[in-house]
Amino acid sequence: MANGEGGILVYIEVTEGRVNRASYEALRAGQLIGAETGQEVAAVLFGQGIEAAAAEIAARQLQTVHLVNDAALASYTADGMVRAFQQVIGQTKPALVLLSHTYEVRDFAPKLAASLGRVLTGDCIGYRVDGQDLVLTRQIFQGKMVADVVPTGEKPWFVSFQIGTFRGDECEAGTAAVALTSVTIDAGEIRQKPEQRFKEAKAAVDLTQAPLIVSVGRGIKEQKNIELVRKLSEALGAELSASRPICDNDWLPMDRQIGSSGQTVSPKLYLAVGISGAIQHLVGMKGARTIVAINRDKDAPIFEIADYGIVGDLFEIVPALTAEAEKNR
Amino acid sequence: MKIIVCLKQVPKNDSVLRVNDEGTWIQDRDLSYEINESDQYALEAALQLKEKVGGEVLALSLGPARVQTVIKEALARGADRGVHLDDEAFKGLDAYGVATVIAAAAKKEEAALVLTGLQSDDHGYAQTGVIIAEQLGVAHATIVMDVEVQEARLRVKRELESGYFQWVSLPLPAVLTIQSGINTLRYATLKGIMAAKKKEISHYDAATLGLAADQLAPRQKILRIYVPQKSKQTQFIEGTPAEVAARLLEKLKNEARVF
Ligand SMILES: Cc1cc2nc3c(=O)[nH]c(=O)nc-3n(C[C@H](O)[C@H](O)[C@H](O)COP(=O)(O)OP(=O)(O)OC[C@H]3O[C@@H](n4cnc5c(N)ncnc54)[C@H](O)[C@@H]3O)c2cc1C
Ligand SMILES: Nc1ncnc2c1ncn2[C@@H]1O[C@H](COP(=O)(O)O)[C@@H](O)[C@H]1O
């Protein structure tokens, strides 16, 4: 990446007037890559009545905050966002557009990039500047392997980073100018009609306060085998939880799911049985004080964050652990 | 309603992955394959929609001859026809290229609705469905957990972050990316497997779809793939199951002090 040219544009996601915390991580990525490549950093926010959010971002170290205020953007739609973002890119001509890989970004960024003949290099977990290249690291095979990839087409390049890759709280403070940037969106162009956001009825079990959790994943193979892990949880006096496929199959109720679309827990002990450790699961439990993983695959990503690991067949280990726990009671 | 469901064939979840000689992808020798997880839910969603509003379900897969196994599996579960996209030029495409080819096939078939999984288990781009919509010029919704048909529109329930959901309506034709768990999967019956033998599979290559090489040119390149470095020191506990159990509980009590 040649010095100085183009600049970096960071997408700041605003939901109901508030900056999504993950956006600070994208901004931090922008500050770091900007410093390393000598590029200016700007940010852009879209919505209506979001001046406070823009002011919050303007108190960080960057050049300009582009505030796009438009009634057509009051609630998020993929069509509205892409139309608006295309125009901001046309006006600011960045070399690199950075985003955090949130659900919203997954919904519009591939379309935005494709509409400009580009592809998003998505869900990256690291970067390296190598001459003209920006080398990005992405997880493949659900975290069992990683790939170094480079965008090869024309700029701007579009890159999103996995949540947790950068520390949002390490964003340098500063003062940036807020520029009101206008776009034209014909309300008729927006095909999606969103309704109110809502939460399902409150979960019957609250795992967030549980001190001990035993969690079961697809390694358990069949519904009837869940009993094996339930017995272990009872012997340890722990709550039972699960990875998403277990709940997708209705083997355990939805409210026992841990992860990005389930509960986020931080118990003293999290014992993962037959769980591979995909990022969407890890985000829900990596705050646990002690993590134990039982998995027959020594390369399973769960071992990257486990304090104690047992490589072996859960059908042998779990009954032995249950027996031992019962003995100690 | 004519529905295309996109099914990707991926290495079985418990495959032992070995890096190829060039270091740029895995060795595909000796692998067994399955249908990508969320795509199975997309197939079920397509079959249920057809049962509700009538129409036809086309099971589409892009890849070498082996991906016809995936198409046949879908036909046995109840899809009406297969669409196999295969060409030398379709090898090693990125999400943009794959979506461009699938969009061309969807246009040729005049599908009203295209369903994909939300993310593939191998490349994990989480993009193909959204790019298909852009290439077709139709509306889309991602991470869908429920679908209602309302005349010329759909009303879909999207999963959002932090336990939120949102209903969104959009006009047909449309593309939806389906989240796992949206429904309960059905499996092929013997009758289904027999019936599938008589169902047709259409084969399209780049020429039939009117695609030129530069439309598919990769916009992103894999330099190398590797097993990630561990960041945390994991204490591995070894021994017979009984020994491992005793040691772990001792450590949890005296070292980690969780009890
Ligand atoms: C948008 C989105 C949101 C998601 N939200 C969530 C979420 O909230 N929570 C969640 O968990 N996932 C979520 N996922 C899914 C996630 O990506 C993974 O697919 C899922 O976590 C995998 O579950 P698993 O580890 O149980 O299964 P697998 O990945 O299949 O792992 C099974 C593990 O069991 C091991 N095993 C098999 N047999 C044995 C044995 N006999 N003994 C010991 N070990 C054995 C295997 O080695 C393997 O590591 C989400 C995905 C997406 C795209
Ligand atoms: N080669 C393929 N053949 C059929 N469908 C595919 C193919 N690649 C991707 N898809 C579809 O696109 C979805 C998202 O894939 P991806 O963008 O790679 O994460 C998958 O779940 C499939 O439904």
Explain what this protein looks like in three dimensions.
The complex is a heterodimer of chains A (329) and B (259). Chain A has 329 residues and is α/β, with parallel strands linked by helices. Chain A has two domains: 8-189, 3-Layer(aba) Sandwich (Rossmann fold); 207-327, Rossmann fold, CATH 3.40.50.1220. Chain A is 28% helix and 28% strand. Chain A is built from eight helices and 17 strands. In chain A, strands 9-8-7-10-6-1-4-5-11 form a nine-stranded mixed β-sheet, sandwiched between helices. In chain A, helix 5 links the parallel strand 13 and strand 14 (239-242). The longest helix of chain A has 17 residues, at 21-37. Chain A is elongated, with a radius of gyration of 23 Å. Chain B is built from seven helices and 13 strands. In chain B, helix 3 (95-109) crosses helix 4. The interface between A and B is large, with 84 and 76 residues. Strand 17 (308-311) of chain A pairs parallel with strand 13 of chain B, so a sheet runs across the interface. The complex binds flavin-adenine dinucleotide and adenosine monophosphate. Adenosine monophosphate is lined by residues 6-8, 36, 38-39, 42, 60-63, 95, 98, 116-117, 119-120, 123-129 of chain B. Adenosine monophosphate binds next to helix 1, strand 4, helix 3, strand 6 and helix 4 of chain B.
Keyword list:
heterodimer; A: 329 residues; alpha/beta; Rossmann fold; 2 domains; nine-stranded mixed beta sheet; 8 helices; elongated; B: 259 residues; two-stranded antiparallel sheet; 7 helices; 13 strands; binds flavin-adenine dinucleotide; binds adenosine monophosphate
Short recap of the structure:
The complex is a heterodimer of chains A (329) and B (259). Chain A is α/β, with parallel strands linked by helices and 329 residues long.
Predict the CATH topology of chain B: Rossmann fold
N to C succession of SSEs of chain B: EEEHEHEHEHEEEEHEHEEH
The biggest sheet of chain A amounts to: 9 strands, mixed
Overall, the morphology of chain B is: globular
Please report the distance between the alpha carbons of the first and last residues of chain B: 58 Å
- By DSSP, the count of extended strands of chain B is 13
* Biggest protein-protein contact in the assembly: A-B, 84 and 76 residues
Measured on Cα atoms, how large is the radius of gyration of chain B?
Answer: 22 Å
Alpha-carbon distance between the termini of chain A? 62 Å
Report the β-strand fraction of chain A as a percent range: 25-35%
Number of self-contained structural domains of chain B: 1
Bound small-molecule species: flavin-adenine dinucleotide, adenosine monophosphate
Can you tell me the CATH class of chain B? Alpha Beta
CATH topology of the largest domain in chain A: Rossmann fold
